[in-house]
Amino acid sequence: MKRLLFFLLVFMVCCGHVASDRSLSLVPPEPTAPVEPLMIRPFADDVRCRQWVDSVMEELTLEERIGQLFIYTIAPQPTKKNRELLRKVVKDYKVGGLLFSGGQLQNQVTLTNEAQRMAEVPLLMTFDGEWGLAMRLRGTPSFPRNMVLGCIQDDSLIYEYGREVARQCRELGVQVNFAPVADVNINPENPVINTRSFGESPVNVASKVIAYATGLESGGVLSVSKHFPGHGDTDTDSHKELPLLPFSRERLDSVELYPFKKAIRAGVSGIMVGHLEVPVFEVRNGLPSSLSRNVVYDLLTRELKFQGLVFTDALAMKGVGESATLCLQALKAGNDLLLVPRRIKEEVAAVHAAVKHGELSREEIDAKCRKVLTYKYALGLSKKPHIRLSGLTNRIDRPHTRDLIRRLNLASITVLGNDSELLPLDPVVKKVAVLNVGEPNGLKPFLKELSVYTQPKEFCLTQNMTEENRKQLMDSLANYKRIVVGITVRKLSAYKSFFDNFAPSVPVAFVAFVSGKELVPIEKCMAKAGAVVLAHSSEDDVQCQVAKILYGKACANGRLSASIGSLFAAGAGTDVGPRTVPHFIPEEHGMNSQKLACIDSIAQEGIRRGAYPGCQIVVWKDGKEMYNKAFGTHGRMSRNGTAEIPVKPTDVYDIASLTKTTATLLAVMKLYDEGKLNLTDRIGDILPFLKNTDKRNITIRELLLHESGLPSTLLFYGEAIDKDSYRGGLYKQKPDKLHSVRIGASTWANPNFRFKKGLVSKVRTSSHVWQVSDSLWLDKSFTQIYLQKIADAPLRDKRYRYSCVGFIVLQQVVETLSGLPLDAYLEKVFYAPMGLTHTAYLPLRRLPKEEFVPSSSDPFLRKTVLRGYVHDESAAFLGGVSGNAGLFSNAGEVAKIYQMLLNGGELDGKRYLSRETCRFFTTSVSKISRRGLGFDKPDSRHPEKSPCGKLAPASVYGHTGFTGTCAWVDPDNRLVYVFLSNRIYPDVWNTKLMKLDIRTRIQDAIYRSLIKE
After folding, report:
1. Contacts of 380 (CB under 8 A, 6+ apart)
2. How many CB atoms lie within 10 A of CB 935?
3. Greater pLDDT, 334 or 641
4. What gap in Å lies between CA 268 and CA 38, rounded to an integer?
5. CB-based burial of residue 841 (10 Å sphere; 0-12 exposed, 13-18 middle, 19+ buried)?
């Protein structure tokens, strides 16, 4: 267990380091400190290991020590001839290991046991299992190819895969796996590497190599990363001839060598040197890297400090040449183990003779032999192993194995394109055609799962379809609103002419149950598709998963490991899942998309004319998103005025007084729903600090209607300022030497004041717990000062008077009745269950500052740009959590909250409020003003003062915010409209948003887009 935890820790550290290099371009050579391989590290000072190695060395002759450096290949066939060959290489040449070339599981185990019985020194049993045992042995579990695994984003799955392959190898009696492939396959014409590679990105290949290799070694199997220094960008197969890498050192460092360098630093134990001609390292023409001392010793061992076992690639390959002394040359180059020699008798003799004649030192042979023996000890070969044949198949292919294969397949699914947000598909649209390109029953699982969400109609495209039949097919497809093209056939060239002319007028999604490279013949057609789902495999569970992904019921987060023609580059991909907001076609839901697009010009006009730096706008109809766009920038924030960050739909705004209905009112409605609060309740009966004041008889209804007699606002922060710390008044209508800071249209302030001693701190302390800005913390005792100021405030007549103070009082009511702070109560009851990740008070506790749009510049009170801190001074000096302001969110999440209200208190199948409570609060209207119970509403009696557009019906309810925000719900037309901006950044006195009627004009544009039935 300790060893497993050690490998896991190293894996996470190494993969984290690789992930930090995602922006890799050209990487220069860097000095590398030696890293002891992970597998050997626990045995560095192991006395028993050293004693065993010493004891074996004492018994071995020079020839036997040489034999330990050879790995011989043999077919796993239990014939008499094969058994005689096995006996010869084990008994006569005392080879260090064997490589079985392929065949049947049971035969290999039988011969493995025979070989280990014969061997005086236990043999290293090696295997070429890049994608598991199925690469060489029939009837064993088949894992996805590396190019597919390269699409997976969760490297812990690759680690788990490596451990499972290691488990199977150990069951088979194998200690060494010649995997993973560390080649970066950036040449699509590569005839030998191709799908054996994890892909085209050096960074992604490196992270997958480390994950797989670490998994193998944590499972007790030595990994061998190959083919050093990199076989990915060749168009020649080294099995047949010598490939050339005519690249500069800079290029090799940034691409080919990158995964190997990262793997070495991660502590892998084995590297295989390929047969490649690399002129930048080896000037001798035609000399393979596997035989080049410049490559093996100077580069790999000395410069890159690799301390593990160095294997040659198979020396029987034509790419290495025909010399009779290949093994001798390979040892002189610096290799430790010689794989698949052609003529073992002659090769062993040649090495022996070279030692005798001083061409190769005995010390070098001894060092290599000792190194091999040390690894044998680390791999458990100090004793002869025996593999139990009975139950072998069941031990290899376990339920966990099949489940892992399933999880790897599902995790590799990649959604490409989707720029028009076709996915997830709209479940309301039932007329969906599925065009089957492949076997007639090839899409059966896919169609069955699709039937859960829609009513698919299958059409088949066959290879030999006549022109007339193709036309009939196209005519039939034209009757459907969505087309899904399902591909299970691998050779698409025969269908190219059809797809060259395939241009339906409705949205099309391609689903490829084949590898990405097969899609190149039809990439021209796919370029016009709304989305492409690359599933790689047509397994039943993959087909079912893809159907779920199409409708947002399952997640896909794969990223393309290798480019598909010129259409999709490596790294392409987008996340789709249950949290993905579906995109809908407005016309299918009663709206005109062209008229809806008029919103764009109004929003851009506001930016152009200086009403705000940027904004977010969301429109929902019938619970479906019709419009979601972000415009402009956060605003200039650098000193030289050049930094402009574009607004994203996920960016977070200070929503100001929209807090009243998006936070405080929700809490009030919930307490009312639960019977803990009545609108006739008097606040003096709930809040002790108001019990003996003239405010004791104010009711909850009066607070919600803004008819309580409380003042509009109170300058709470004034109680924190030392009045003796400045000269003159704090404010003036005109600037002078003292009043140099503008804070309003005709208001200037004196910034040269001090806060009362002990009330504030630049850092958090045990008592200074309320953060007002980055370097301003307020003492918690200010709460009592704050509440006392409300209690002492003069009560005025009970006409309509918009009051932030009233909603601060409602906050106290909520916190008293719920027993929780307002922010904690809302998070628990509403925001967290709704899945709102960007809606919160004090949002810097959970989100980085870069995600916030600046609210305003405050040169007077907090003397900083407010980004992630509430602008409203009252809310700020209440610690950022207030009933009147302080909530932060984005337009998409605000829309979800108001959709919940429109749905009568329900969202995504979960009920938050009763339908009766929602109806009561959203329809009630004051008798003396336009106001509802907490909500603002259109002003039909004074349209010029209405906060809504002229076309908004009287049933609309919502609110606006000082920072330039609004949210409106129309129950008649089932509409939700949200507008968020930072109109007071940088100047709080900017009123152009109102003068230009931006918010109301956008609302009217929404109504004009409605299609009349």
Report:
1. 175, 220
2. 24
3. 334
4. 6
5. buried
Q: Check whether 246 has a pLDDT greater than 50.
A: yes
Give the Cα separation of 789 and 834 in Å (integer).
Answer: 36
Q: How far apart are CA 742 and CA 989, in angstroms?
A: 9
**Cβ contact 377:222 at 8 Å:** no
Statement: residue 19 has pLDDT above 60: no
Q: Are 361 and 355 within 8 A, CB to CB?
A: yes
pTM of the model: 0.81
Query: Which of these, 387, 413, 423, lies nearest to 110 by C-alpha position?
Result: 387
Tokens of 592: 């005109």
What are the phi and psi torsion angles at 797 (to 5°)? -65, 160
Q: Long-range pairs for 861-865 at CB < 8 Å and ≥24 separation?
A: 861/717, 862/772, 862/773, 862/776, 863/751, 864/773, 864/774, 864/775, 865/637, 865/985, 865/986
pLDDT at 891 > cutoff 90: yes
Length of the chain: 1013
- Three-state DSSP class for residue 227: strand
| 967-983 pLDDT tens trace | 999 999 999 999 999 99
How much is the CA Rg of the chain, to the nearest whole Å? Answer: 36
pLDDT at residue 20, rounded to an integer: 43
- 3-class secondary-structure state, position 82: helix
708 Cβ partners below 8 Å, 6+ apart? 695, 698, 699, 702, 798, 803, 806, 809
- pLDDT tier, 998 (very low <50, low <70, confident <90, very high otherwise): very high
CA atoms within 13 A on the CB side of 600: 8
Question: In this predicted structure, what is the pLDDT of residue 52?
Answer: 97
pLDDT digits 0-9 by tens, 531-557:
999 999 999 999 999 999 999 999 999
DSSP secondary structure, 525-578, as one string: HHTTSSEEEE-----HHHHHHHHHHHTTSS-B----SS-BTTTB-TT--B-BST
877 Cβ neighbours under 8 A, 6+ residues apart: 716, 717, 720, 770, 772, 778, 782, 786
Q: How far apart, in Å, are the Cα atoms of 924 and each of 407, 658, 659, 930, 931?
A: 53, 19, 20, 10, 9
What percentage of the chain carries pLDDT values higher than 70?
96
Smallest CA-to-CA distance from 884 within 958, 805, 957, 978 is with 805
692 burial level (CB within 10 Å; 0-12, 13-18, 19+): exposed
pLDDT at 500 over 60: yes
**Mean pLDDT on 374-380:** 97
Which among 223, 224, 210, 216 has a CA at the least distance from the CA of 163? 216
The model's pLDDT over 160-182, given as tens digits with 9 standing for 90+, comes to 999 999 999 999 999 999 999 99
b/e sequence 524-550, b meaning 16+ C-beta within 10 Å? ebbeebbbbbbbbbbbeebbbbbbbbb
pLDDT of residue 643: 62
